[in-house]
């Protein structure tokens, strides 16, 4: 059988048509000097070709995009020359031979030191190497994780959650699959705060780490894996949401976390005896140090609940009921490790309702962590007792007087503790970036604020003059304490101290009003200087925590018409 001859197909090449066919928009075979269409008998066209194809005009949008690309290329080239970055081959080799990072010293981490340099490319190399793959990995690379965790630990006191640092570092070095290690959810939470405290360019990764954290929390809860770490991580999510002004989301996280903590029995740790401690859902503590971490977790949640209710005017999740809260006050972590707490008598929230003289069995509770929890409890209780529009019955008057006695005793105890332990403030009391003095400053200021509010309640006409002078002295002590700590290091100041400073501002402002009514202009001018000194502290604080500008303790100061214009401006800022 003869082979079939394949049919020839004319392939038209785009752009090769003659000028005549191009004008008439017809197919052209592009044969020169005259194409097939123009040489047909019925065609009268004179075939010809243009010397070159006219360039196509670019649209304005295309031209703008090309100009933008060229500008970006120039910026990148300039930045690379400024930074003297090695090429990708060198970076790959450096990552392969990267030494171990000292988790106790953030300066040893090259990624963190690079991130602190002001530059168009000040994102750490470690983060630029791991874009979206970070979301898929269960464990973060150490070059990313270590500098972020160190950044968080520098300000851990601002976030209320505390734990034994030696125990944390021991668990931190273990692989995440080890049941003794830290759950990835808690590591992700610390890394998220590390981003929050990092340069602006690094903060663009917050959504990525927030998504990682949500996934880790869901995984921990679904597998009932290290629930104590889940509780601590979820509490940090609450604080993060407050920082980002997602108040409803933060409050939902807090309420759910506290309910879980109550279900686990963290509110009923009445003894350091591991055999009798009733803690459901959680792994039984393997020592006093681990039990101490659980005690600290509960009181951290308690403080977050009280401060968020005070600042955001949300209802508390933990009821103000001595019968409900049975957990003992937190102790120093060294006392848990040494076993000293096993000989301590039980003392908890009920001690805030009656004055108790200290005994050798309760001296273990004289520490900054217990001071903070007590001061926060007293401040919240004072605010519920002293609204000026309420008429007080005999029980309320008795409660106010008792609370004044308890708060006064606590204030004296903290002053004696400070004179003995830290007559001068420092951020490295026991180790670098220690939170000891920061917690003490807040506890003392919160106690001053509680006493000012309690002395504002007119429960005894004969004592009103003495109470007024006492309020003035308390406000001066509070502002002097804040000014001293702020001059040493602003990191010693927790943002929530704003409540105490606004309370002191009100005392000085009322003194200005009183003296002006009496016509004592010189004394009023002196009081106005105290108002201005307090306002300077508030200004410095809201520069670091701008979300506080709109909170009611700050905006409530408009009524004195001293800094009203400035406060109104703050209220309108985004």
From TrEMBL:
Cross-referenced Pfam families: Fungal_trans, Zn_clus
Domain Zn(2)-C6 fungal-type: 17-49
Key word Membrane present: no
GO MF term set: DNA binding; DNA-binding transcription factor activity, RNA polymerase II-specific; zinc ion binding
Region Disordered, annotated ranges: 83-113
One GO term describing the cellular component: nucleus
Biased composition, class Polar residues, residue ranges: 85-96
Major site of localization recorded for this protein: nucleus
Keyword Protease belongs to the record: no
Keyword list, A-Z: Metal-binding, Nucleus, Transcription, Transcription regulation
PROSITE patterns: ZN2_CY6_FUNGAL_1, ZN2_CY6_FUNGAL_2
Subcellular localization, as worded in the UniProt entry: Nucleus
Gene Ontology process terms (BP): DNA-templated transcription
Name of protein: Zn(2)-C6 fungal-type domain-containing protein
Annotated organism of origin: Botryobasidium botryosum (strain FD-172 SS1)
